[in-house]
TrEMBL record, chain A:
It comes from Rhodopila globiformis (Rhodopseudomonas globiformis). Transmembrane segments: none annotated. This is DNA-binding protein. Keywords: DNA-binding. It holds the Pfam family zf-ChsH2. Residues 19-54 form the ChsH2 rubredoxin-like zinc ribbon domain. Residues 58-120 form the ChsH2 C-terminal OB-fold domain. GO terms for molecular function: DNA binding. InterPro entries: ChsH2_C, ChsH2_Znr, NA-bd_OB-fold, Thioester_dehydratase-like.
From TrEMBL, chain B:
Residues 234-377 form the Thiolase C-terminal domain. GO terms for molecular function: acetyl-CoA C-acyltransferase activity. This is Thiolase. InterPro entries: Thiolase (IPR002155), Thiolase-like (IPR016039), Thiolase_C_2 (IPR055140).
Length: 136, 380
């Protein structure tokens, strides 16, 4: 699925740590030092209590399949049909991603199935966090 | 406090709906605005407030020759016009303007003077959604639905029924784009767009526009049109990223905007004679019926499949045919408002006899924002 041409993110100062993390094969979330909320997407304050006392925390990479569509129309960098998925991380936050190493069919993509993160380099600077069925 | 001190006195759509390559986007705004002014006998010099989305209110004020004392450029997608009506009602009550024009025009099909939508790669959407292959609303707005279906045991057949019922309403409407009857099988056999969504579960793409003119209820009596009063209004926002919705089976923006409007209007669900729920895709009426409190969670799909919202049913819904069959230029909310006004005036093609209260509920973006307007034709 990593054919050239898909839209790539451009990090901002507030998100650079996340993309540095994926490049190093780490999925980084943030945790509030005051209310303990673990959150995504990145921002330099807690979206629950507005505290600026936040830190970066490494996620386990474990997730479950929360919802998805299987897209049947052509998009640069993708070969239809392909799933556009939202996964729920073990730490709580949800994120959009693609599911790899798995047939892109309703039969194979079962809600709540266990997934694990895998990192797919797209350019010198950008590595995307994708998910695949958990092993074992 | 009920907003029954403000009324819609002018309302019109563009002269034509559908494919209109001879008008640019601002031209569609203007065509609708001129029609609405003609509807109530006003000229641009009589308008002192303007609200719009898609184009800026500055563009429209200049183009139409209006000198405003109040402008609103709230642009949060297809429910922007519900929110304009809400803001306009508050502005008229506060004395900021006396006669407010709300315009919509969109060259959604022909794309004349309508710049392409882009997602900036530094935005949150650009960084955390766009890289995973979505292409606009059909592949994004639909993402929560499998979770809804699993949670409540809803089937693809039930979702298809939404489209079948709305086509029945469209068949009664000479201006509807699609009027031929369809069956559940037709929907389920139509081309797959983004599983579980098929072509007939997705809205049209057309050109068109609409405009409303609001003034105080006291002045409304002096106009040639039947006043349609604003009973209650609500608005809210949740997230620009569908992946970050709190609950994939329900819209927080709906759950705030809808009840706010009901409380302001001082009505209960049993008082509602006519309902519009913005249907960019077939699941929207299902989410809307539940989040506005008409039904318990998980029951709306069966309610629609049992023909309760169909012609002759207890809760007439999307009586113009909706975004699925009537028209959908991209920001459909204005057309839902127009149908509510027609129903309250008693002039809708599929008129609900003796309808006195109409609820019009809009969505913006992909569950990103919401606006609700409750209309009445009863003198306050």
């Amino acid at each position: 699925m990593a054919t050239p041409g898909r839209a790539l993110p451009q990090p901002t100062p507030e998100t650079q740590h996340f993309w540095d993390g994926t490049k190093a094969n780490e999925l980084l979330l943030q945790r509030c030092g005051d209310c303990s909320k673990v959150y995504f997407p990145p921002r330099p304050f807690c979206p629950v209590c507005a505290s600026r006392n936040v830190s970066v925390t490494k996620a386990s990479g474990k997730a479950t399949l929360y919802s998805y569509v299987i897209h049947h129309r052509p998009v640069p960098g993708f070969t239809p049909p392909y799933a556009i998925a939202v996964v729920e991380l073990a730490e709580g936050p949800r994120m959009m991603t693609n599911i790899v190493d798995c047939p892109q069919t309703p039969e194979a993509l079962v809600l709540d199935m266990k997934l694990e993160v895998t990192f797919e380099p797209q350019s010198d600077t950008i590595t995307l966090p994708l998910f695949r069925p958990a092993k074992g | 406090m009920p907003h029954n001190t403000v009324a819609v006195v002018g309302a019109a759509e563009t002269t034509r709906l559908g494919v209109i390559p001879e008008l640019s986007q601002i031209g569609l705004h203007a065509d609708a605005a001129l029609n609405a002014m003609a509807d109530c006998g006003l000229k641009p010099k009589d308008i002192d407030g303007i609200a719009t989305a898609g184009e800026t209110p500055v563009q429209l004020a200049h183009y139409l020759g209006i000198t405003p004392t109040w402008i609103d450029g709230t642009s949060v997608g297809g429910c922007s016009f519900m929110i304009h009506v809400r803001h306009a009602a508050a502005a008229i009550e506060a004395g900021l303007a006396k006669t407010i024009l709300v315009t919509h025009g969109e060259s959604g099909k022909s794309r004349v003077g309508n710049p392409p939508r882009t997602v900036h790669p530094q935005s949150l959407n650009g960084q955390f959604e766009q890289p995973f292959g979505p292409m606009g609303p059909p592949s994004m707005f639909t993402i929560p639905v499998l979770r809804y279906m699993k949670t409540y045991g809803v089937t693809e057949e039930q979702i298809a029924q939404v489209c079948v019922v709305q086509r029945e309403w469209a068949a009664k409407n000479p201006r509807a784009t699609f009027r031929n009857p369809i069956t559940t099988e037709d929907v389920l056999n139509s081309r797959m767009i983004a599983y579980p969504f098929r072509l007939l579960m997705c809205c049209l793409v057309t050109d068109g526009g609409g405009a409303l003119i609001l003034t105080s209820a006291d002045r409304a009596k002096d106009f040639p049109t039947k006043p349609v009063y604003i009973l209650g209004t609500g608005e809210s926002a949740e997230t620009p990223m569908v992946s970050q919705m709190e609950d994939f089976t329900s819209s927080r923006a709906f759950r705030v905007a809808g009840p706010t409007a009901f409380k302001e209007a001082g009505i209960t669900h049993k008082d509602v004679d006519h309902l519009m729920i913005y249907d960019a895709f077939a699941h929207l009426p299902i989410y809307g019926l539940e989040d506005l409190g008409f039904l318990p969670r998980g029951e709306a799909a069966a309610f629609i499949a049992a023909r309760n919202t169909a012609p002759g049913g207890s809760l007439p819904l999307n009586t113009n045919g909706g975004g699925l069959s009537y028209m959908h230029s991209g920001m459909y909310g204005m057309y839902a408002l127009q149908e509510s006004v027609r129903q309250m005036r008693g002039v809708a093609p599929a008129q609900i006899p003796d309808a006195k209260i109409s609820v019009c509920h809009g969505v913006g973006g992909m569950f990103a924002a919401s606006g609700t307007i409750i209309f009445s034709n009863q003198v306050p």
